[in-house]
Each structure stands twice: as C-alpha cells, then as structure tokens.
Structure to design on (309 residues):
C-alpha cells in the first residue's frame, strides 16, 4: 500500500513574481518527484498569498482607471491564483516525472471550499489584501460593507476574514483521481471560499487559512500523512531567542501544551500545529510532519523534521 501524503507547499516553494515562480516550481517538482519515487501517493496543496494579492491589486487597479469595468471579487481572484499556480506546478512536476520515466497524470482541480456564513471570523477580519487606497476610496469601500485598515499614515487597504473550512465541494473528484493513482493539486491558497445559498454556491469575500484547508483536505482524502513545507527544517519553539529549541517527534498532548504556552506565532506556525493536532487526533496511525522542502523526503522516511503523532 502506498503512503497517502497531503503536502502543503509554502511561499518559499513557489516564489512571488512570475519569474521567481517559474524557477521555484521546478525546484519543488524535483522533491515532489523524489517522494513519488519513494512510493508516496501525493495530494498537493499550496500557498497563494503573494499571488492572490497581486491579482486582486491588478484587477482593481485596472477597474479604477477604466470605468466600464468592475473590480474582481476575492473569490474570483482566488480562482485565478489557483489556476496559474497550478498550471506552472503541474507542468513542472509532469516534466520532472517524465525525465525519470514515470508517466502519471498531474491534474489541478479548481477547488471550492465551503465556509459557514455565521463564522465568527467574518466579524474579525485579519487578512490584508490589495492595493493602497486614499481615504476617500476607503470610505467608499466601507460604504459597500467592506473592511479597511490604515497603513503607513494615510494609506488604506482592504482587510478580509479568514473563516475555517467546513467542506470541500470537489472532494469526490479529488478522491476519484487519487484512487486512480493520479497526482492531484487541490485547495490552492485554502480554496475558493463559498457559501451555500439553496442550490447555489456564492463566493465569499474572504481568504481561507491555507493550513486549515490542508488539514481538511487530508481528513477528507483519508491521508496517512499531512506535511507542511516551511522555510525551516524543524519547528523552533524559541525562534525569537538566542537559544533555539527544535522539536523532533512530539505527541498531540505535547503539541497542545506548547499552544497553551503560546510558543507559536499566531499567523505563521500556530495554524499548522493546530491543523496537525486535529488531523492526527481523528484517526489512529496518522502523522503530521513540518519541515522544509530540502528535507521532505527524509522526513517522510522518519529522518528529520518535526513529527506529531
């Protein structure tokens, strides 16, 4: 039986600009291909923070100067980012696999993720996004019901919510491809946030926390391993001190103790740890791993990285 691994690629594995992304995905594809060669059935998800911000800024800046066009909603920007990151990533991975004599289809699924319209996160937006605005433009956004935040003295930007994922709309298609032995890229950037309105799905003005979406993807595909790719080989619970404390293998209860002691950054590591705890706790035999791209294959083999089980 192949080990089913949901691997969540962070910003460092993708780059920021178009040229950076082209280079980064080729490097990432080599490591992903190593995992395939080691017998892993991969389900890949990824960050999109710089990309979706760039798209949102570009679309709304264009609309600002062309009165015949309207700005793109967050859900549409999220869909665009999934498409173009997935396009580069699937081509890079396919090319690397073919070089090694491995012939597998790599498919990107444009993924919608269901959120609860009554999620408390909608009342406490945290994700800053988009272009800078004047005070007058910011007031117009607020009149539409959007949230804005002031930055750098007199300049304003949109700020959106980060609700928790409740379900993945395309999960049957994802599982069908996985069961067929194909490689799947899904839930990019946390997925396109949608709310159910009768038989219709309506895009939400939000950005789903990608780490929680990765955990939901691992849960619904019944993965064996949930792996988060970060910039560091192991999790450091004393990252802001001169004496790093690197975590090797820890239990769910130990991970929870570190959360209670506020050892993890709210925006960076905490969602990864909490998602890992949720995933591992639901079924015996599961494991979560946090490491960098360079050590991913070794970490799956139990050599290096931070393991939660």
């Amino acid at each position: 039986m192949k080990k089913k691994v949901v691997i969540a690629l962070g910003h460092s594995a993708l780059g920021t600009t178009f040229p950076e992304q082209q280079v980064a995905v080729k490097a990432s594809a080599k490591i992903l291909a190593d995992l395939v060669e080691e017998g892993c059935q991969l389900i890949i998800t990824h960050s999109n923070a710089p990309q979706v911000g760039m798209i949102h800024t570009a679309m709304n800046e264009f609309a600002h100067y062309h009165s015949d066009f309207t700005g793109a909603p967050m859900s549409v920007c999220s869909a665009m980012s999934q498409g173009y990151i997935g396009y580069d990533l699937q081509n890079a991975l396919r090319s690397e696999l073919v070089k090694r004599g491995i012939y597998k289809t790599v498919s990107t699924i444009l993924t919608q993720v269901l959120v609860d319209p009554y999620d408390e996160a909608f009342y406490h937006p945290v994700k800053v996004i988009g272009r800078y605005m004047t005070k007058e433009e910011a007031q117009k956004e607020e009149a539409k019901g959007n949230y804005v935040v002031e930055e750098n003295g007199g300049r304003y930007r949109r700020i959106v919510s980060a609700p928790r994922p409740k379900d993945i709309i395309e999960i049957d298609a994802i599982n069908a491809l996985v069961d067929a032995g194909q490689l799947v890229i899904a839930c990019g950037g946390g997925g396109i946030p949608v709310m159910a309105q009768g038989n219709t799905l309506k895009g939400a003005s939000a950005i789903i926390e990608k780490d929680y979406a990765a955990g939901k993807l691992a849960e619904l595909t019944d993965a064996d391993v949930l792996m988060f790719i970060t910039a560091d080989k192991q999790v450091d619970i004393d990252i802001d001190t001169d004496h790093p404390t690197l975590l090797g293998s820890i239990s769910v209860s130990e991970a929870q103790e570190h959360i209670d002691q506020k050892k993890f950054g709210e925006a960076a590591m905490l969602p990864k740890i909490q998602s890992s705890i949720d995933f591992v706790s639901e079924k015996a035999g599961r494991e979560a791993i946090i490491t960098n791209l360079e050590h991913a294959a070794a970490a799956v083999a139990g050599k290096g990285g931070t393991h939660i089980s």
